[in-house]
Amino acid sequence: xxxxxxxxxxxxxxxxxxxxxxxxxxxxxxxxxxxxxxxxxxxxxxxxxxxxxxxxxxxxxxxxxxxxxxxxxxxxxxxxxxxxxxxxxxxxxxxxxxxxxxxxxxxxxxxxxxxxxxxxxxxxxxxxxxxxxxxxxxx
Length: 139
Hints:
Elements: H1 20-30, H2 41-96, H3 112-122
């Protein structure tokens, strides 16, 4: 029977998934405009949830102060500083499954592009090192 030895961490097997705050911190502080490397599913989806929550709150605040036009202005103000980290997280997520970050452009195709990106975003990490670096899940 294998016993846990804290002095010798396991070399194989996935690391624990990131939490909400850790993923947001990575995307906004450590890798704000970083399109290189790889991002785990948890990092990408937690940051995407943060992005949706922030835009929703901005929309409600904007609507309260200026109706529909206020909501658009508030969303634009909030969206601008979050564009680069969200694109970076998306590119790193695609790198994690072995695809180029340029595949984000497939999202410009209505409906089909979004579905493809969602499917790719849900795929598990490639456990082996690829051209974009080692797997953050299996390091």
